[in-house]
Structure prediction request, 219 residues.
Amino acid sequence: MGREIDLLRSLPKTKRNIQKRSEGKDANVVAIAKQFGQMYWDGPREYGYGGYRYDGRWRAVARDIIAHFGLKAGMRVLDVGCGKGFLVKDLMLERTGLEVFGLDISLYALTHCEPEVVGRLHLGSAEQLPFPDRAFDCVLSINTIHNLPRPRALQALREIQRLSRGRAFVQVDSYHSEEQKALFEQWVLTAEFHDYPPGWIKLFEDAGYTGDYYWTVVE
Ligand SMILES: C[S@@+](CC[C@H](N)C(=O)[O-])C[C@H]1O[C@@H](n2cnc3c(N)ncnc32)[C@H](O)[C@@H]1O
Prediction:
């Protein structure tokens, strides 16, 4: 089994207006957000990111990931749920010669990606990764797997394990208390499966996933 490690510790904490999100949320907003289209990325905050632009904030995370996994020039890395490719770009900026690729279900994100990653991003779904076994030296998936219902999340973790043999990092929505769970439920738009850490760890075990992991907690 892998270990719990906060590889996103360098990311600035997001200011969330939980009350506004909760008041603006209805079945229609949730349905639109779950399309991961223009409204989710660059529409009003009630629908998702409220405008997601590259500002270099993932560079420090990229440095921590490179150090944690000992990534070197020539190694291949896959980011599952890469969105517009910010982390893909920053990993390559931080380690010249690292071969980084991404995969995402959002055609909008991939067609609005950073110029440096054009040709490196694949359209697809996490539970069916179109690559051979052991194709990557490291597989990352940040805030993505919880967007699948549990059986598909299980399959996605199996796929990450198949490609990476456990040299991997997955971060997912979670909570440590009833209070945090209540806040999360007010905030959440797209997650299909979420749980306390032991519930996630059970899913990792069921999938045979042996990589590292951490939690996104709404506070
Ligand atoms: C919260 S965003 C995270 C994006 C990026 N990893 C980050 O941390 O900034 C969730 C991402 O999951 C992607 N996604 C949702 N369902 C997916 C699926 N079944 N397969 C692959 N990506 C998916 C969305 O398009 C979006 O890019």
Q: What stands out?
A: The longest strand covers residues 99-104. The pocket of S-adenosylmethionine is lined by residues 36, 81, 83, 104-106, 109, 125-126, 142-144, 147-148 (CB under 6 Å). The CA atoms of residues 194 and 200 lie 8 Å apart.
